[in-house]
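Team,

Forwarding the record for the chain on the shared tracking sheet. I've put the sequence and predicted structure together so nobody has to dig through attachments.
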Amino acid sequence: MVMRRKPILKLDSVVKIYGPTTDIGKGKYYRIVYPSDGGLRQTTATTEDSAFEKAHQLARKIKSGGALRCELTVNDFLDAYLNADLRGKSGNVWGPKHAREQNGLMNRYVRPVLGTKQCIEITNESLKEIVRSGSTFSNGEHLRTAIGAWIRWGKGEKWVVSDPLELLHGMKNTTNQMKAAVKAKQSGQGKLYIHPDQIPSHAEVDALAKAAAKTTGIWWYELMFNLAAYSGLRIGEIIDLDVSHIDTKAKTVEVLSQCLEVGGKKHRTLPKMSKQRTTIYPTTTPSGYPLSKQMERRVMELKALKRVPRIQDGAKRLLLFHNKNGGWISQGSFSKDVRIPAQKIAGWPMDERGRFIWTFHSLRHVFCSYYLGELKQDVSDVAIAVGHSSPWTTYSMYVGAAKTAISKLSAAN
């Protein structure tokens, strides 16, 4: 009776390693057997270590090929989904902004909970836990939508073996429960309404701008923060601003494009909602900063340069606010090296988790509330300057019906 040899190692019930049978000839090698094209194939290795390494590579390759993807980790699943080349073969093509949002949601919420688990360990309850971790109804809704698209794509690509309907069952109820827990709101104030507490004062803007210049030693950072607060420019728009966009006599800024950063790579795209516009800035800010004069100073300073810098996309441009090479500023580096240190110096408020309540985008709220609330400008005009989809959006965010409704009713008596 012939005894059948047993493998010295079996990887995932797929790849088997057999030890040497002799000290000479073919029998002195380690033999690795693996499935291929409906049958079995084999390869060899000279040492046990090299046999183990080769076997692991083969096992991973076989799984990644499709049939056994469900046994890989969720991190592998996420890497494939977030890779435009891999996902694009069978999924939708994402724009830069959508790609950035999906990367943010998956890396912030999904990886910490499921990343190291096998794909076959994904459960309905674990997905609901992730949705609940979004804390707010809005975040929960974004997570629910993102997770649904991810799971359905994974089913088609064999990362997921369970029925997506079972995995995603009851997810909407989960977000509805989050919505039910939301605090009561003032009648007449929609979900877009920005409470005055969420808008920095003129003094707080002035303190932040001065702190930015102080912490960096670069004078024009004070200009950058004041311009953002009193022109309504978004961070991507102000990073892409160059001297050709500025009319210092009319005190206007043409917003023709923005710098969008996705995964560390920067792209020049149209502004949000593809809406190009013109906005304005005042001669002097409410805190007394000579904004118009300092804009003229900065434009003249740039025009005096002997060489026009070449930015990251290959174009030669005189960016109003640039990195040390004259190119686009990195938003991550800007936050870490400029904004956050300046906020600490200026004493901007933090929440209970130690995070700043206001961000750079809060400066945009200053522009809208200043022109609407203090200068009493028409909502339609402000909406055009700030680039909102409609005047109603501007009104809903910064005025709210509650402020005027009761006085109108009283006047009618």
